[in-house]
Design brief:
Number of strands: 10
Order of helices and strands: EHEHEHEHEHEEHEEEH
Largest sheet: 8 strands, parallel, barrel
CATH class: Alpha Beta
Distance between the termini: 27 Å
Radius of gyration: 16 Å
Strand content: 15-25%
Number of helices: 7
CATH architecture: Alpha-Beta Barrel
Structural class: alpha/beta
CATH superfamily: Aldolase class I
Shape: globular
Number of domains: 1
Length: about 240
């Protein structure tokens, strides 16, 4: 199965077209007011119409209530809901049942103990997104320019597909794919020139690097994973 690649936090036709043209499997739109990537429903609906049928449309929310989710679903008609807050397994199951859409749940990872939460969410979500846990005092649940130690998930065998996120960019995604061999990767601020401002060239570079690494999977025998490098100038992950 080929690597699935998601470009999240898209907000303009130009950057959406760059992602679609370079072969993104999923495109994400953020509905979280504190984020520099937040979209209103009208703008998101326009972008979704442009992407429909070309890539999966993912709507990212953070601890949203049912009324907010209903408004997003009605206006944007996403293919998947991404829950990036503190939603419990019970809340994830309820959202999936109420809206009849696949759900991806983000899980913050900092230590091996954080992996214990995966089993409960595997039982109720369609896929998981493994992201760096936000540092103390962070406003956003993700997108804080931090990568977690990839050794924690090297060789991870889950019943549900997962996407690797947190600290990824065009420069390190190939290493992540080779070392972790994830089913998917997800990037947002790693392809930005400033918070919330996507760079079409970096979007294309990320997709090319990830695809090349995926094509080469199985030809190398890495001895172990190492932590990703990070850049304080960029936030990474889709919030």
């Amino acid at each position: 199965m080929s690597l699935e690649i998601k470009i999240c936090g898209l907000s303009t036709a130009e950057t959406l077209d760059a992602a679609l043209g370079a072969g993104a499997d999923m495109v994400g739109m953020v509905f979280f007011a504190p984020s520099p990537r937040h979209l209103d429903l009208a703008a998101a609906a326009t972008l979704a119409a442009r992407a429909r049928g070309k890539a999966g449309i993912v709507a990212l929310t953070v601890d949203a209530d049912d009324a907010t989710l209903a408004a997003i679903v009605d206006a944007v008609r996403p293919d998947m809901l991404q829950l990036h807050g503190k939603e419990s397994p019970e809340r994830v199951a309820a959202i999936r049942a109420r809206f009849g859409l696949p759900v991806m749940k983000a899980i913050g990872i900092a230590t091996r103990e954080d992996l214990a939460a995966l089993a409960a969410y595997e039982a109720v979500a369609d896929r998981l997104l493994l992201d760096a846990k936000p540092p103390k005092g962070a406003v956003l649940p993700g997108g804080n320019g931090v990568a977690f130690d990839w050794n924690l998930v090297a060789g991870l065998d889950l019943a549900r597909p997962f996407m690797l996120s947190g600290g990824l960019d065009p420069e390190n995604v190939a290493s992540a794919v080779r070392l972790i061999q994830p089913p998917g990767v997800d990037v947002s601020s790693g392809v930005e020139r400033a918070p919330g401002i996507k760079d079409p060239e970096r979007i294309v570079a990320f997709l090319r690097a990830a695809r090349a690494a995926d094509a080469a999977r199985g030809t190398e025998n890495p001895t172990g994973a190492t932590p990703a490098h990070t850049s304080s100038a960029r936030e990474t992950s889709p919030s």
